[in-house]
Design brief:
CATH topology of the largest domain: Alpha-Beta Plaits
Helix content: 25-40%
Strand content: 15-25%
Distance between the termini: 60 Å
CATH class of the largest domain: Alpha Beta
InterPro entries: LigD_pol_dom, MtLigD_Pol-like, NHEJ_LigD
Largest sheet: 6 strands, antiparallel
Protein name: DNA ligase D polymerase domain-containing protein
Shape: globular
Length: 303
């Protein structure tokens, strides 16, 4: 197969694109060109959530049915205009002390990573050089529990966090479950934030043990929603809002309204993950439902 390559200019940057007809999502016939088109069109609301955050990409060179790999380090051939930040990675499985992370601050860089078949974009809860400005609670359902059950737990978690003056914002994961994103002060380290998230998760698990677990062991998770407080570990990342996911169809991590969450919890709304096309329509209607995450919130209770 002859590789098709051509250059485009994006906001003054020269970006090389290739193989736009390659199918990334075979079940949906969704091509790499459509992946790049989606990321280009969603960029106005996505880029602020990627800005100043070290990016982990999950690349699928041959589409979602082929092999994939996680990539943190800048690959060979990275254009000189791409922002790189050299950061420590203690405990790296590849015995590296530092990694040159890609930071996506502009449209050209976003298109460049999309052209590398970086379908999934994951970021940490902190901005470079700072303490966490987000707390993330991942709600992971163990079958037969699903998104509906996650929504019910999300409402409980929202109300519990509100008791401590924290405002949670919901989004789907784009896969099975969902996340709650909470803007925090950026003045406490990840250990403090993770400890608080764990205490709240264990509290809710004790209150509703038949439906919720705060334990990571998979043996205790069937039929329950696992509140994964560990996402706040400094080394962890979470799928970015609006990022595509590697499913049969091109679903994306989608911000929701609390009315939608309540309806899904009651079985009154459509309980499913949303596609890239639907996300674009929602943004046109609602704008960025997670814009409030871009401003600092209050500190978490230390104890």
């Amino acid at each position: 197969m002859v590789k098709q390559r051509f250059a485009v200019q994006i906001e003054g940057r020269d970006v090389e694109l290739s193989n736009l007809d390659k199918v990334m999502y075979p079940a949906a016939g969704f091509t790499k060109g459509e992946v790049i088109d989606y990321y280009t069109r969603i960029a106005p609301v996505l880029l602020p959530h990627l800005k100043d955050r070290a990016l982990t990409r999950i690349r699928f060179p041959n589409g979602v049915d082929g092999a994939h790999f996680f990539e943190k380090n800048a690959p060979g051939g990275t254009p000189p205009w791409v922002r790189l930040e050299t950061l420590p990675v203690p405990g790296s499985t590849k015995a590296r002390e530092t990694i040159d992370f890609v930071v996506v601050d502009e449209l050209a860089t976003l298109v460049w990573v999309a052209n590398l078949a970086s379908l999934e974009l994951h970021t940490p809860q902190w901005r470079i050089g700072a303490d966490p400005d987000l707390m993330v609670v991942d709600l992971d359902p163990g079958a037969p529990a699903g998104l509906k059950e996650c929504c019910a737990v999300a409402v409980l978690m929202r109300d519990r966090l509100a008791d401590d003056g924290l405002t949670a914002q919901p989004k789907t994961s784009g896969k099975k479950g969902m996340q709650l994103c909470v803007p925090i002060s950026g003045t406490q380290d990840a250990e403090v934030v993770s400890g608080y998230a764990r205490r709240v998760a264990e509290e809710l698990s004790a209150q509703v043990p038949g439906s919720i677990t705060a334990k990571m062991a998979k043996a205790v998770r069937p039929g329950k929603v696992f509140i994964d407080w560990s996402q706040n570990n400094a080394a962890k990342t979470t799928v970015a809002p609006y990022s595509l996911r590697a499913q049969a169809t091109p679903t994306a991590s989608t911000p929701l309204t609390w009315d939608e969450v309540a309806e899904m919890a009651m079985g009154a709304g459509a309980v499913r993950q949303l596609t890239a096309a639907e996300v674009l329509d929602r943004v046109e209607e609602h704008g960025d439902l997670l814009a409030c995450l871009l401003e600092p919130g209050p500190p978490v209770p230390a104890r």
